């Protein structure tokens, strides 16, 4: 892989990860059409996702800092409640317990945990299927057509008003399952999860925020599973610098696209992304049979 190919893939990842047009689908399409060899299999794709993960951490740094703080407070309150329970049983007392889920950030932590469970299970079950599908143009083409349908439908739904305190754990479970299914090439992760959130009645701004925040444990988990194989890979310094260059570009472009999505979702413009997905899906399918 040349430095220009790495930078191109970085731009594609940064744009397609956060705009609802499927980064996995576009990476698969361009790798197949341009015959780009990443030399280390899925490693470079994972590094690109790490770049966009950093973009999420920067874009939502205040929310993430608050989530971490509230998580620590949850652990502290659970310990205190355990002490209270022991005291009450021992002394026959009736001290009050601390309320664990006392604000929206604490509720969001539990929602993200619940969403991550089906994502991880489905992701592991589909791993081999996804790898095989990404080697063709037909699968990403079909996936993009599916994404196009989802984006077209959601623009005609009335916006909901739900914020974390109004969301059920069943909704979180369903949205997590959608994220797991979106590992299939061409099916947009952000598009699918945002659509799922909106169909569950989420406030539009919260839908985008939740979609991106819930991707953090999923991307971290995938990165850990893949990076454990790095010691066995023969990667020179030149190749590693090329990979890092693409990762940095993915992060910068991704940050810009996150800010763009926060604006776009308020204006109900998903139908334009839908048209683009239909177009790219047709191109991929045609190329599959023509090349």
Automatic annotation (TrEMBL):
GO biological process per UniProt: cell wall organization; peptidoglycan biosynthetic process; regulation of cell shape; response to antibiotic
Catalytic activity: di-trans,octa-cis-undecaprenyl diphosphate + H2O = di-trans,octa-cis-undecaprenyl phosphate + phosphate + H(+)
Documented EC number(s): 3.6.1.27
Keyword terms: Antibiotic resistance, Cell membrane, Cell shape, Cell wall biogenesis/degradation, Hydrolase, Membrane, Peptidoglycan synthesis, Transmembrane, Transmembrane helix
Gene Ontology molecular function terms on file: undecaprenyl-diphosphatase activity
Cell compartment(s), UniProt: Cell membrane
Transmembrane segments: 42-60, 108-126, 132-154, 210-227, 239-258, 270-290
Gene Ontology annotations for the cellular component aspect, listed alphabetically: plasma membrane
Keyword Cell wall biogenesis/degradation: yes
InterPro entries reported in the protein's UniProt record: UppP
Topology in membrane: Multi-pass membrane protein
Source organism superkingdom: Bacteria
Major enzyme class: hydrolase
Its biological purpose: Catalyzes the dephosphorylation of undecaprenyl diphosphate (UPP). Confers resistance to bacitracin.
Annotated family: Belongs to the UppP family.
Other information: Bacitracin is thought to be involved in the inhibition of peptidoglycan synthesis by sequestering undecaprenyl diphosphate, thereby reducing the pool of lipid carrier available.
PANTHER family: UNDECAPRENYL-DIPHOSPHATASE
Descriptive protein name: Undecaprenyl-diphosphatase
Originating organism: Lactonifactor longoviformis DSM 17459
């Amino acid at each position: 892989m040349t430095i220009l190919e790495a930078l191109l893939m970085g731009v594609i990842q940064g744009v397609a990860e956060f705009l609802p047009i499927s980064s996995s689908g576009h990476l698969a399409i361009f790798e197949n059409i341009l015959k780009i060899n990443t030399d280390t299999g899925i490693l470079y794709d994972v590094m690109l996702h790490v770049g966009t993960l950093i973009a999420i951490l920067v874009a939502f740094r205040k929310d993430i800092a608050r989530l971490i703080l509230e998580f620590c407070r949850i652990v502290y309150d659970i310990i205190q409640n355990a002490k209270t329970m022991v005291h009450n049983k021992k002394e026959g007392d009736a001290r009050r317990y601390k309320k664990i889920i006392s604000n929206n950030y604490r509720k969001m932590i539990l929602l993200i945990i619940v969403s991550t469970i089906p994502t991880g299970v489905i992701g592991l079950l589909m791993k081999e299927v996804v790898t095989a599908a990404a080697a063709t143009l037909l699968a990403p083409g079909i996936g993009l057509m599916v994404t196009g349908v989802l984006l077209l439908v959601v623009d005609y739904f009335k916006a909901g008003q739900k914020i974390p305190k109004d969301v059920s754990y069943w909704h979180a479970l369903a949205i997590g399952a959608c994220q797991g299914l979106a590992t299939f090439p061409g099916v947009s992760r952000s598009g699918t999860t945002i659509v799922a959130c909106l169909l569950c009645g989420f406030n539009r701004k919260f839908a985008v925020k939740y979609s991106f925040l819930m991707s953090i444990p999923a991307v971290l988990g995938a990165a850990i599973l893949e990076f454990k194989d790095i010691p066995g890979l023969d990667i020179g310094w030149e190749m590693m610098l090329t990979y890092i260059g693409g990762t940095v570009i993915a992060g910068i472009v991704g940050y810009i696209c996150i800010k763009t999505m926060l604006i776009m979702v308020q204006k109900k413009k998903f139908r334009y992304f839908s048209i683009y997905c239909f177009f790219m899906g047709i191109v991929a399918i045609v190329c599959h049979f023509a090349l």
